[in-house]
Amino acid sequence: MLENILIKTTYNKEGASIMAKEKQFVEAITSMDQDFSQWYTDVVKKAELIDYSSVKGCMVIKPYGYAIWELIQKQLDKRFKDTDHENVYMPMFIPESLLQKEKDHVEGFAPEVAWVTHGGSEKLAERLCIRPTSETLFCEHYANIIQSYRDLPKLYNQWCSVVRWEKTTRPFLRSSEFLWQEGHTAHATADEAQAETIKMLDVYAEFCANVLAIPMVKGRKTEKEKFAGAKATYTIEALMHDGKALQSGTTHNFGDGFAKAFDIQYTDTDNTLKYVHQTSWGMSTRLIGAVIMVHGDDSGLVLPPAIAPIEVMIIPIMQKKEGVLEKAEELRKRLAISHRVKVDTSDKSPGWKFSEYEMKGVPVRVEIGPKDMEKNQCVLVRRDTREKLIVSLDELEVSVENLLSQMQQDLLDKATKHRDAHTTTAVTMEDFASQLKATPGFVKAMWCGETACEEAIKEVTGASSRCMPFEQEELAETCICCNKPAKEMVYWGKAY
Amino acid sequence: MLENILIKTTYNKEGASIMAKEKQFVEAITSMDQDFSQWYTDVVKKAELIDYSSVKGCMVIKPYGYAIWELIQKQLDKRFKDTDHENVYMPMFIPESLLQKEKDHVEGFAPEVAWVTHGGSEKLAERLCIRPTSETLFCEHYANIIQSYRDLPKLYNQWCSVVRWEKTTRPFLRSSEFLWQEGHTAHATADEAQAETIKMLDVYAEFCANVLAIPMVKGRKTEKEKFAGAKATYTIEALMHDGKALQSGTTHNFGDGFAKAFDIQYTDTDNTLKYVHQTSWGMSTRLIGAVIMVHGDDSGLVLPPAIAPIEVMIIPIMQKKEGVLEKAEELRKRLAISHRVKVDTSDKSPGWKFSEYEMKGVPVRVEIGPKDMEKNQCVLVRRDTREKLIVSLDELEVSVENLLSQMQQDLLDKATKHRDAHTTTAVTMEDFASQLKATPGFVKAMWCGETACEEAIKEVTGASSRCMPFEQEELAETCICCNKPAKEMVYWGKAY
């Protein structure tokens, strides 16, 4: 596999001389097939996305990793604003008594919150937890500001960091502190709240498909898997390269449960007091983990152009020759009008640079050297397929543009094919186990709706219920586990 | 004063009928001259910038307040990126042992940090404080990633919230949690670090002048006022409408103090190990407080167009008449190409809307009604001067554009005039006290450099040293306090 990559990569003369060095660089990461988990850790470090810190379970998000997050934020935030949501900022602290107001919610979160007990040298009269999520704070605020039907709906979102005290952590996928957005809305009716819950799930899925190039399965969580305090939780589930599922975003319909606990009432047009209906929804830096595990390969990260901090990296060949650096800079200027583009003028060899930006997942590299200049051409190389294209400099802009949009589309298609090829169906428990072993991925199977069966399936196969998809199929009439009448087709899978 | 405002505001017939109601709305805020502090609190609430929460000293930043912060962030972040800085994200926690590594730093911050002692139900082996500022975290990271001169400079910034346990708090000006940016850089030489410290101070001052329309005095802080752990602290100081000073941003040169405490060394070109030289610099949501107190008036907030979430509010007059709402929407579309613009189609009366958007500081309002339509015109009203302009609809875009840029410039000019008119000089302590009473503001006076005199001056006059300005004048040869030879001319003032 590694050999293939090296052979498929195209080198100019100067580049060839450093093949040994480059091999060393590439070999520094474990191959996916050998140890997917180690490969992930290697990529996260070698692509310079994160660094570890001395704080348990917390990571430093380095410039390149944070630039990806900024591109995710920007494009997601635009979608929130286009759907009339407004950003706000709530305190990071929740007094213990406030957290306890909604019974299910506190039971779900209390075991994993960080507690502040002292301010300076003084002991606090009441402990404060650092928000693991901010339902309680939004509810307190909504109780303050909602009086009349005229005040509804409230469509708020916030970008912040939250803390959940995790025992075992992995960069981006599970950390004690992580960055996210949390939408919190209040509506006059149950129907409106339900519509919002589904609408934001659709926004999430559309964003993941069109920006992250990751196809999602949309559906509802079972009672066992739903959010603490929610009436219903909806989820988008993605399939990673190794066949494991990743819950990538969730939306929750709270009905009027929180409204009753926090006394959030409004005077309706008929002059009667009514409780509001609420929702919340969140996506986090976990999405970066999804991008790594869906698109990455043995040379490192592969970034969809839409979230690539550098879409095009220009690498001058024989850069000491007259005019090469000037030409590279000229191309940069031309491409910079529509794209995020850089030139690497450092004294590293071209081959070394090729490997470095492959590791970082830069979608397109442009090679330009004296021979290319003579022929008024340059070489374009796509990160995902490593296809090499020789194009006239007169058509540089349109060629790069086409290559980037083609790559964005191809990544989605490839991920969709992989997901579909790793989605099997089972009608018996034996099927289930053998399918999951032969083709690790999603298994579709019928379920009676009982938590006991859900737990038994996990016990036997290791797969948890991922969601009850909106697009139901009737694979059988009975539950795969207990043979009682089936209620739902469920996507099952081993999950991160 | 209030009567003047009402008379100067222009009403159409429909508007006149609600004058009483509007008066009520406007009167709901205290006048500046009567009680500036109460006026500030009223504006912050009535303009819907913040709400209080049940968490001591923490505020909820509401959509309108947060939208101002987003515009500040966006324009400041662009300046950071244009000067080659990169954004990162560090953990929000600092282990106690890490905080203690730099002696002066821990002494300065330990008394005001929040301590996390428990994760879930378990007591932590080591207490963690919530970052009051992140020097220690950046230092730990820099010690990890800096090896060679090739790794320098590191020019990092982060946007986050920080916590300082304050006894008395005021929205935006002083709160237990606040939002800010903190730049942290590491350089090969002392000269480079000093150049960065001054460069970022200049970036801050230019931003405040051109975006916030607030003129700044730039200078160095005295030993007493400098940042805990810094070799030198530089500041930009603004003068509020009430004559009090507001420290609006600071930059710190750490020399190699932190580098020695955290062992951040690099191998230089001559193959010897050297300590890096570091800086940090920060501005916060406090800037919103400055905008309120520099530009606001008795009708509420006045926003410079550059940070106004709504630059232009269109208010239809007699909106039930045929074609009025359609025309208003047409104008909105035309202006939306270059500006943040909205139409208020609610059933509130025009006069009510006028007051509401004056309270919110919307720079320009457009009035359009049936009579205006007949004449192919509309009315433009500037928030700051309340000047009324009747313009042809054919010239709408250019008229609005001119009005907005004129207002942006005029606000800066007015604030500069106010600042200059409230900057006095003193050569005796008697002068000092009487000047400060007669013309509350900055007092320029000579100083010997001794902390004892600095403290005595504060004791006697209530004014603290704001900065030793870059532009020095020799007002006298001796210290205003002790009559020993003077070393510096200092800006003094009562401060927030």
From TrEMBL, chains A, B:
Transmembrane segments: none annotated. SMART domains: ProRS-C_1. Coiled coil: none annotated. GO terms for biological process: prolyl-tRNA aminoacylation. It comes from Petrocella atlantisensis. It catalyses: tRNA(Pro) + L-proline + ATP = L-prolyl-tRNA(Pro) + AMP + diphosphate. One of its GO terms (cellular component) is cytoplasm. PANTHER family: BIFUNCTIONAL GLUTAMATE_PROLINE--TRNA LIGASE, PROLYL-TRNA SYNTHETASE. GO terms for molecular function: ATP binding; catalytic activity, acting on a protein; proline-tRNA ligase activity; transferase activity. InterPro entries: aa-tRNA-synt_IIb (IPR002314), aa-tRNA-synth_II (IPR006195), aa-tRNA-synth_II/BPL/LPL (IPR045864), Anticodon-bd (IPR004154), Anticodon-bd_dom_sf (IPR036621), Pro-tRNA-ligase_IIa (IPR002316), Pro-tRNA-ligase_IIa_arc-type (IPR004499), Pro-tRNA_ligase_II_C (IPR016061). Catalyzes the attachment of proline to tRNA(Pro) in a two-step reaction: proline is first activated by ATP to form Pro-AMP and then transferred to the acceptor end of tRNA(Pro). Keywords: Aminoacyl-tRNA synthetase, ATP-binding, Cytoplasm, Ligase, Nucleotide-binding, Protein biosynthesis. Consists of three domains: the N-terminal catalytic domain, the anticodon-binding domain and the C-terminal extension. It is an enzyme of class 6 (ligase). This is Proline--tRNA ligase. Its main location: cytoplasm. Its EC number is 6.1.1.15. Residues 63-304 form the Aminoacyl-transfer RNA synthetases class-II family profile domain.
